[in-house]
Amino acid sequence: MLVVKGLELAYGDKKIFDGFDLSVSDGEIVCVLGRSGCGKTSLLNCIAGALPYGGSITGAEDGVAYIFQEPRLISGLTAAQNVKFAVSHALKDRERENRLIDSAFEKLGLSGLQNAFPEELSGGQAARVSLARAFCHPSDVLLMDEPFGSLDIAVRLSLTEYISALALQRPRTTLMVSHGIEECLDLADRVIVLGGSPCRILREIKIGERRGERSAMPERARITDEIRAALLSE
Fold first, then answer.
1. 3-state DSSP helix/strand/coil percent for the chain, to nearest 5?
2. DSSP letters of 147-172?
3. With CB atoms 3.0 to 4.6 Å apart as the test, which of 100, 126, 175, 194 could cross-link to 71 if both were Cys?
4. Is 72 within 8 Å of 223 (Cβ atoms)?
5. Coil, strand, or helix at residue 139?
6. Strands 29-34 and 173-177: what pairing?
């Protein structure tokens, strides 16, 4: 379980978190929504150990897989080498590593692009390589910071299905920051709306229906209205 307890964070005189608590159960997918600047990305960075903070965070001691807003691919390495660079220290079985990477490239619509360099990829292709990099990482904790932001609707839909399938095959404790209510409703076990200054949880909604069966979810419209109301309440 990932547990954030009494989180304290400030930028100068501005307090971002002041005693903030959050827990994510093993294998649970929690989607986080909120206005820009409320602290969503800062929360992920604290969990990843990229920011100094007060309080405690447990459950991520063995490292995390992190999908950033930008692809952050290494120039000079091919697409496949970028993925290998991120996972080779954790995966000692090279044959298994190659199978994982080939499978991720195929499922993400990247077949044939393993040897392409970052500058040869479109923005959407580069974003998908960054997804492959995180999905191949063996960490039990996955952080996603607006992973679909640069992708078109068709690719977003296919990736939502891919992540849903992966969650069934290998459940990971997942915290995803998003601006899209629809993708949250499709993926999350729980949706959290953040806001305020310092940041706090404004609304927390548990989604009971199974993934893949939510397009006709009777509660979908009501939950969407509830999330919108929370986002606009600031």
1. 35, 25, 40
2. TTTTS-HHHHHHHHHHHHHHHHHS--
3. 126
4. no
5. coil
6. parallel
